[in-house]
Design a protein that fits this description.
The complex is a heterodimer.
Chain A (H helix, E strand, L loop, with lengths): L1 H26 L7 H17 L4 H25 L4 H19 L5 E3 L13 H4 L3 H21 L2 H11 L1 H6 L4 H27 L1 E3 L6 H15 L8 H21 L7 H18 L6
Antiparallel strand pairs in A: 1-2
Chain B lengths: L1 E10 L7 E11 L4 E6 L5 H9 L6 E6 L2 E2 L5 H4 L3 E4 L13 H9 L16 H11 L16 H12 L6 E5 L7 H18 L2 E5 L3 H6 L3 E6 L2 E7 H6 L2 H14 L5
Parallel strand pairs in B: 3-8, 3-9, 6-7, 7-8
Antiparallel strand pairs in B: 1-2, 1-4, 4-5, 9-10
Helix pairs in contact in B: 5-6
Classes of the chains: A mainly alpha, B alpha/beta.
Amino acid sequence: MQLLISVLEQGFIYAILALGVYITYKILDFPDLTVDSSFPLGAAVCAALITRGVNPYLTLPVAFAAGAVAGLVTGLIHVKCHIRDLLSGIITMTILYSINLHIAGGVANVPIFSNDNIFSVFPFKDALGIFNTTVVILIILIVAKLLLDGYLKTKSGYLLRAVGDNPSVVTSLAKDSGTVKILGLTISNGLVALAGCVMCQQQRFFDISMGTGTIVIGLASVIIGINLFRKVPFVAATSAVIVGSVIYKACVAIAISKGLAPIDMKLITGVLFLVILILGQFGGRLKK
Amino acid sequence: MIELKGIYKTYGKGTVNEQELFNDFNLTVADNDFISVIGSNGSGKTTMLNMICGSIPIDRGEIVINGSDVGKLKEFKRYRKIGRVYQDPAVGTCPSMTILENMSLADNKGKLYGLTPGTPKKRISYYKELLSELGLGLENKLNVKVGLLSGGQRQAMALLMTSMSPIDFLILDEHTAALDPKTAEVIMRLTDKIVREKKLTTIMVTHNLIYALEYGNRLIMMHEGKAILDISGEKKKNAAVDDLLNLFNKISLERGNTV
């Protein structure tokens, strides 16, 4: 039971992140490495605010905004300085490492065990018991998913989808495809930082290295989800991505429960991703 | 009105592959002109369209659209007044979006792409009407992804989409070249209808000499960056495919080719 709850908690948190990665990887076709640093950025912002006694719920929008700025920077580097997508993300990722340390007060690890967090101040905490954390994360996830679904059905959302699909259509519509890309990166990294913020409160500490390999987890979730539901009609891609994230976390949890040491975590993460990529090739198209 | 004044364009400047294409090229496109442009490969037809739309920069000269110099205007801004259909039917539409979504995108050109619903419900019947005029049955496939349509269907949609918003100019870059003869015919008739109805000033590059003669009020033959033939009105009406072919062959021979 404990294992299941842990898988769901982790899976839902990384699903928020995967929604962000879905925007860049699947919609914009942009391999965005900013994620590896915007995830801990959200956590750093969260830890800094919580240790100062700020209302835990307030950390969520602030973390989203911080991540959005990180995405904006990557977008500007890519579009305005004409730097390749992969390199733009790497540049922002590297810069953010120092910024994250600054936000965290110059230390690599900030414990927030004794502070209030979104779970401890949740009004229905006692009624939910051991499911409290899972439910709170699920609520945040569902709100994020519904907002994203809604956004993708607006005019602005249409334009975002068009830019990844066929940028020349956007140009023909007299719109700057670069600006639309930047917007996509902004929203994406906002979601990623939001996930980092929730993660920080769930594990009750910020750690500068918690972002390492995040992009791999995000990509794996997106690819599992999309491939799994490719032939199933009426399942929104965002829902598929959430399921993908939970499945991925379950696989990692099973691997660890079968005797692999926690220090092998990233090893499992990477190898599992490779396996998914290879399996995806058998399943047909990997990318759109 | 589109005016090209003293245009210079050299590809691969400063390299061994340097190739001068345009040397003091001038062209005036009057309002409501429908110009067919023909010419061999490498004669500068598509380059001319790309320069007008801002897809490639010019080395020297002026491009004046409706009286204002657009030299510094970025490509996407020039498309406020220009609609363009390409040779490749895939360029004009978004394949993973549905017919309805593509139509809604095009319908909103020139307006704000904000947080209002992407497809306004009350416009759907209007889209259906436009699609049914194509006679391809697309009005019954509103939720089908455009990527699943045939090349001809996609090109018809691309043409329809460019002409949905109020534009002044229509740029057609060999837009029937990738289609089978029957579909090409359908697209050409649709083009003519749209140009007449919306009173669009049109430049159409084509390799089809019959279309070049049949459609439009003016015909230009390009060769090595120059308009070596520029006829309009009665003269164009009386020109025959054979005349054009003879001229074509003459140019070819001058370049050392055999017929």
